[in-house]
Write a structure and sequence with these properties.
The complex is a heterodimer.
Chain A: H1 5-55, H2 65-101, E1 105-108, H3 115-120, E2 130-141, E3 144-160, E4 166-182, E5 190-195, H4 198-202, H5 204-215, E6 222-224, H6 229-234, E7 235-239, H7 242-248, H8 251-264, E8 269-273, E9 276-282, H9 303-322
Antiparallel strand pairs in A: 1-2, 2-3, 3-4, 4-9, 5-7, 5-8, 6-7, 8-9
Helix pairs in contact in A: 1-2, 2-9
Chain B: H1 2-62, H2 69-83, H3 89-109, H4 114-117, H5 120-155, H6 159-166, H7 178-181, H8 186-191
Chain lengths: 333, 192
């Protein structure tokens, strides 16, 4: 992945600029059309309401119906236009940006990491009840095959209020980037690296509880105690094989994971299953989103706009370099 | 009469509880001891694999590396000595450590032979050796973790009483040798 500022500005001038201009024109056309729809609906609905109020007294509150309908039309047309715009921007612009970052990568705005794959990572103790995603990027970075997308997984909880009526609340299980990459070593078991809450809270006794939760079958395998104290403070590790866990988590990889966690500034989770690496990075903001339909004129043509996408892409793909996945000096090629 | 039965039940219950506690601690100590043995055998497996690899490696390398005869002979000799039966455990591990550092020197010396680095067979052997060394390091670390766990149980209350009854004693962890800890000074190795 070699993206230098020099060849980006060349690429920008040769390819992107004209597309951005087209997109900007379409965006303005859309906002213009939306303005017209809004104007006509408000005038039409307002006039009808006034007319009913003036001449059909018996209509009462029903007189406001046309105005309500007008608002609904505005609302729906906004939703349709915004999603159409987002699709347009993603297909025309982001697909090209991804190809520029690496010709071996492809971008699919509407696809995402499947729920089955999400579950098979074993990173979350609960199964999601509602699962959505978007922005799948798939391909290779160097020798490493990688797939990643945004994912939003939720679970529901049923409650009863004081009158015995049932109601449901939804809670986020995970929201952020979910990455599946080919790992650079062969292994057959399961090793999970999860954020350590208990030991930070309860110290020695927390570790006893963690060991117990593996014995009770709440986590696969057994607790692995590693020698890096900083890593032990940040994470708890479970594995089906004590030696294999250390074969994967070498002192240098532990360092790299710690640094990666620092840079992402979030409670990352990693799973190593059957020669694959699963990484879940919770993020507060939505990645790869199109600029707003109503952003000021010319926003698209500003260099910051595209830079933001490039940065997000690099952030998502950095896992390969930061965890050194392209080092293939062992028997796995 | 009732009071007597009551206190007997209490006593019996207490004794049962103590027995269960004793059993749990005893079993946890046994599990820890077995974990150490298991991890030790993990090291042995990798050492055996390395012994199997060495003759092949030496044979492949020999045709190219004319100036490293001495090093190759040393590797062959160390392997033969490590394989000899009835060797005390400590001495065997010393030989393996010497073998590790000799193999490391060999892999650095390889850099001087571009023809060798183009040999497909050699590249395959090199990857296998890297793999074994990586697995070996993992097995050593697993062993050290298991030993630390056992040593903690032997010294900590209340398992220390049971451990001394069982005659368990502290075990030693593997220490990284000076050569392993230091980053190899490549320039110096070339001058040798």
């Amino acid at each position: 992945m070699s993206v230098s500022a020099g060849n980006f500005s060349q690429f920008y001038q040769e390819e992107l600029q004209s597309i951005l201009q087209e997109l900007e024109a379409e965006r303005q056309q859309k906002t213009h059309r939306f303005g017209q729809i809004t104007l006509f609906s408000v005038i039409g609905g307002g006039l009808l309401t006034l007319f009913l109020a003036a001449f059909a007294r018996e209509a009462g509150l029903l007189a406001f119906l046309p105005l309500g309908a007008a608002l609904l039309v505005i609302f729906i047309s906004y939703g349709m236009m915004a999603s159409e715009w987002s699709r347009l921007f993603k297909w025309r612009m982001l697909t090209r940006l991804v190809k520029f970052v690496s010709p071996e990568l492809a971008y699919y705005p509407e696809r995402y990491i499947s729920e089955r794959e999400f579950r098979s990572s074993l990173l979350f103790q609960r199964d999601p009840d509602r699962y959505r995603g978007e922005d799948l990027i798939e391909g290779r970075v160097g020798q490493t095959a990688i797939r990643l997308s945004e994912v939003h997984a939720e679970y529901k909880m049923e409650h009863y209020d004081s009158k015995g009526r049932r109601y449901t609340t939804w809670h986020t299980l995970f929201r952020g980037l979910f990455i599946i990459a080919d790992f650079n070593k062969h292994f057959s078991g399961i090793t999970l690296v999860l954020p350590d809450v208990e030991q930070n809270l309860l110290g020695w006794f927390g570790q006893v509880l963690q060991g117990l939760s593996a014995k009770l079958g709440m986590q696969p395998g057994e607790l692995v105690k590693l020698e890096d104290p900083e890593f032990e403070r940040a994470f708890k590790v479970y594995s089906t094989d004590q030696i294999e866990a250390r074969y994967i988590l070498t002192p240098s990889l532990m360092e790299r994971i710690l640094r990666f966690r620092e840079r992402t500034q979030s409670e990352i989770r990693l799973a190593f299953i059957a020669s694959h690496l699963y990484v879940a990075i919770p993020t507060a903001h939505d990645h790869f989103e199109a600029p707003s339909l109503f952003a000021p004129v010319g926003t698209l043509l500003k260099p910051e706009t595209l830079n933001k996408y490039l940065q997000e892409l690099r952030f998502a793909l950095a896992v390969v370099d930061e965890l050194n996945l392209n080092t293939r000096i062992w028997t796995k090629r | 009469m009732e009071a007597l039965i009551g206190s007997l039940v209490c006593l019996g219950g207490g004794a049962l509880l103590l027995l269960i506690l004793f059993m749990a601690l005893y079993n946890s100590l046994i599990a820890k001891k077995n974990q150490v043995d298991y991890a030790y055998s993990g090291i042995d497996v990798q050492l055996k694999k390395r012994h199997d690899l060495i003759p092949n490696l030496v044979a492949t390398v020999r045709q190219y590396m004319e100036h490293e005869r001495e090093l190759l002979e040393r590797i062959t000799e160390l392997r033969a000595r490590a394989l000899s039966p009835n060797l005390p455990e400590g001495e065997r591990m010393q030989l393996e450590t010497a073998l590790s550092s000799a193999l490391r020197n060999l892999m650095i010396a390889v850099e001087n032979y571009p023809n060798l680095k183009a040999n497909e067979n050699f590249l395959h052997l090199q990857a296998s050796l890297n793999e074994i060394e990586e697995q070996l390091a993992a097995a050593r670390r697993a062993y050290n973790a298991a030993v630390t766990d056992l040593n903690n149980a032997i010294e900590m209350f209340p398992t220390n009483f049971i451990a001394s009854m069982m005659g368990l004693s502290r075990r030693a962890v593997f220490e990284a040798t000076e050569a392993e800890r230091a980053t190899p000074d490549v320039a110096q190795l070339f001058r040798q």
